[in-house]
Design goal:
Layout lengths: L8 H5 L5 H7 L2 H9 L5 H10 L2 H8 L3 H13 L2 H10 L2 H17 L1 H6 L20 H13 L4 H5 L7 H5 L1 H5 L3 H9 L8 H4 L4 H7 L4 H8 L2 H21 L6 H9 L3 H13 L5 H14 L1
Helix pairs in contact: 3-4, 3-5, 8-10, 18-20, 19-21, 20-21
């Protein structure tokens, strides 16, 4: 009981002919309970969380609020990469219970955030960093649950911002949505519905057709075509450059030559992405920007 769980426990708990028997003999739930009650340390509790079968976790949090808080605590302190596999195995019902609880707390601090002029969105919070490690398919599955089961389209719409553009463009198929569910999801974005095609140009034609019977939305969307095409060009150019340099050591001279052939807006976008991905430091980025401005 006082020792951390072995690193291979979860693979033995995956569905197979013996999984029920193995799961019943698993003491991860007991170890997490012991941690919640202060009888074992963090290493034992965290290892039990990482190795526990999802059903064990669901049973654990059903014991009461204290146990639910323990699960939230582990999600907030462990590295996103470490919890990716376990989050992937969570049922959408369990994941929704966790994340909607966090969201309600976030909403309660809205006045304070406005006073402090903090503009970070809910998914920008450090405690939600693990979402960035989840696959588009997993996120789309959760969006579908929020729409179909939880009947919470406004909450579901927030997760569109963490999907890559190609996944947003194929959301109908990835999430298995019908026309009415799609419209409900996009309408929940409110004014954000006009920002979506800029972030994901591939969805523009589809969303334009989707709202062709809504005069106000269709009119605004129809005036955005040139802007969307421009954004599409930026994304495509960025992708080509990123693919070239994503592996191996970055050659600044070669990068400068590639960027100097592009328009300023595109080069700024690419440099921003390189900095965000840690491929360029801020000083390096600023130096290249300065050289490009002189070159132009």
């Amino acid at each position: 009981m006082g020792e951390p769980c072995p690193n291979n426990c979860r693979q033995n708990l995956l569905p197979n002919d013996w999984s029920r028997e193995i799961r019943q003999s698993c003491i991860a739930g007991e170890k997490m309970t012991a941690f919640a009650e202060g009888r074992v340390g963090i290493n034992v509790g965290a290892s039990a969380f990482l190795q526990a079968h999802p059903l064990v976790l669901e049973e654990f949090i059903s014991k009461g609020d204290v146990y639910f808080e323990v699960l939230r605590y582990f999600l907030s302190i462990l590295e996103p990469k470490k919890i990716k596999e376990i989050i992937d195995t969570f049922s959408n019902k369990l994941l929704y219970k966790i994340i909607i609880y966090e969201y309600n707390i976030f909403q309660q601090t809205e006045d304070e955030r406005k006073r402090l002029r903090k503009t970070a969105s809910f998914l920008d919070l450090k405690s939600n960093a693990y979402w960035a490690s989840l696959s588009p398919k997993r996120i789309c599955s959760f969006i579908a649950y929020c729409l179909k089961e939880a009947k919470d389209p406004e909450f579901a719409s927030q997760f569109l911002i963490i999907l890559p553009p190609d996944a947003v463009s194929d959301l109908k198929n990835l999430a298995g949505l019908n026309v009415e569910e799609e419209k409900e999801l996009y309408l929940s974005l409110k004014d954000g519905i006009y920002e979506l095609p800029i972030q994901s140009p591939g969805i523009y034609r589809h969303i334009l057709k989707l709202f062709e019977d809504d005069p106000e939305i269709f009119l605004i969307l129809s005036t955005m075509e040139e802007l969307v095409l421009r954004k599409e060009q930026i994304i495509e150019s960025s992708h080509v450059i990123l693919e070239k340099y994503k592996s191996g050591k970055l050659n600044h001279q070669s990068l400068f030559a590639d960027l100097s052939a592009l328009e300023p807006e595109i080069t700024m976008e690419i440099l921003g992405i390189f900095e965000e991905k840690g491929m360029l430091g801020r000083s390096e980025k600023n130096l290249i920007k300065e050289l490009l401005s002189k070159h132009k």
